[in-house]
Amino acid sequence: MKTGKYRLLFTLIFFALFNVCFNRKAIKVRSQNLNITKHAKAKIMNAENKINLPIRSGNKPRTTPSNPHIQLDQQPENRKIISDLMVWAFSLPEIKKESSKISMPGAEAMCLSKDKMCNKCSAFMIENEFAHFHPVPDGSMHLGLPLKDAQYVINQGWGELHPVAKMGYLTQNFIMVYAPRNEDEVEIVKKIITRSYTFAKGELIDE
Question: Residue 2 and residue 163: Cα distance in Å, rounded?
Answer without folding.
Answer: 88
